[in-house]
Amino acid sequence: MHWLFGDQLGPHFLTPGDDGPGRDTPLLMIEARSVFRRRRFHRAKAHLILSAMRHRAAELGERMTYVRADTYRQGLEEVAGDRPVTVHHPTSYAALRLVRSLPQVTLSPARGFLVPMDDFAAWADGQGGERLRQEDFYRWVRKGHDLLMDGDAPAGDRWNLDHDNRQPPPRAASTLQVPAPFRPREDDIDDEVRHDLDRWERDGDVAFVGRDAPRAFPASRAEARAALKRFLTHRLPTFGPYEDAVLAADPVMSHSLLSSSLNLGLLDPAECVERAEAEWRAGRAPLNSVEGFVRQIAGWREYVWQLYWYFGEDYRRSNVLCHTAALPHWWSELDADAVEARCLRTVLSQVRDTGWTHHIPRLMILGSYALQRGWDPAAVTDWFHRCFVDGYDWVMVPNVVGMSQYADGGRMTTKPYTSGGAYVHRMSDLCGPCRYRPGDRTGEQACPYTAGYWAFLDRHRERLGRNHRTARPVHQLGRLTDLPEVRRQEGDRGDAPP
């Protein structure tokens, strides 16, 4: 019997081979209620995961034994007993510990990623093992998988087209004016999931955050393929230039919305990047958009997965800035209505309503605010894990601990990713109607991000002053005549919603 976890749902997890199940091997999937008891997940995330698992079980028919149990261990014992079971490497340390504790289970290598873990470890060891830069890794992957390559040279003679992909949103536009992304239609399985979640909540068995709404992300291979096709055909050409831009009325812009499908295993990353490259070679999409998309998958997603395992489980406890403040109630409950700062209110409401927002709001609005306030990075990581439909342990530990909260002191990134309100003002339309002014550090209209940025630099001036990428703004602290007022103001702000 072969055991499929709920994020191993695509056909590439069942391809026969030395490390795969046979074509007729019986399959097992376990829906463990305890997963939803341990954390208050976003309701939309719980719905998506269960819908995807049940859709896959229905597709596989009699070959699949689908068990609803209290725990994975209980479900495995109920169906398999002492019989041998195989499973592909799971995507979290907790699941890996469980698998290794079960004597009848044989562990096979991970699938759903481009680079085998051993190959990455050899590459990382060759780089010295500590400061592993994503750009170096990305180029290595491009060469090894012949992605966007012309012989030994990168397509267009440039590895990195970020300079072309950092445009602010079009002036006077409330939306990007591109075709809408694929949206699925719910079916009887979705109805069943919704009724089950309602019942569990009524019984007090589980609790969720966020709002319930019609499912917005693919829950089957067919839906995921349709979403990929629509992105490649209608949205990829405009993806690159505006991938970092934010519009209040257009939360999806030209983004692919494929992260949840990739992380559920409904799509293979290889098919995504290869089909995107084919669009460029056919002249249907510009190189900068295709390179930006390939970078997100073959570069960043792959890099995050590999670092999660390479750095080890203790990495999640990194906290070099000694940030220990608890998350305030309004943040934990996604209470966007309590917030006056328009950028934060807009993004928090997107998370509340859909369980998703794109990477710049995650990093430069949500993550930046948490970093400036000194919140416990482990709690921030858990919040992102629970509240995003594409959030998994392997995704959020490096992304939040390393990238967003700089809790590792620079093992993953060269500087903290935080800024004053000027960045948000430049890259979005969020600041115009806001009661706060991005240029004000003090006073009634002081932008929480601008004041918070200087207060953050002030608290950590010794460490950040030694970093060549933050030394200049730290030096500018000495020129701020209102710095004492900034300190008092931000101390008084505390955990109140801005």
Automatic annotation (TrEMBL):
Species name: Streptomyces phaeoluteigriseus
Pfam annotation, one family: DPRP
Segments for region (Disordered): 477-498
Name of the protein: Cryptochrome/photolyase family protein
Top-rank taxon, per record: Bacteria
Composition-biased stretches (Basic and acidic residues): 482-498
